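Re: weekly structure request thread

Next one in the queue (64 aa):
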Amino acid sequence: MFEKLLFLILSMLASPSFAQDNHLLYKYDTHIQQKIRRVDDLLQKRILRSLNRLIVDEQRMRKS
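Done, posted below.
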């Protein structure tokens, strides 16, 4: 029974449609990772801009 189940799973993994689906999943995963990196970069830029504004405002307050 176990050998039949193992054979079924292995034959499913070796089939072209599964390999194609797996490739699509890989491409989708890569796409999502790129989007996450872009969002991280945008957030990092926004945070740095906000910090720079705060620093500039504080320096202006000290000069006044």
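The two ends are 84 Å apart (CA to CA). Residues 21-64 form one domain.
Next request, please.
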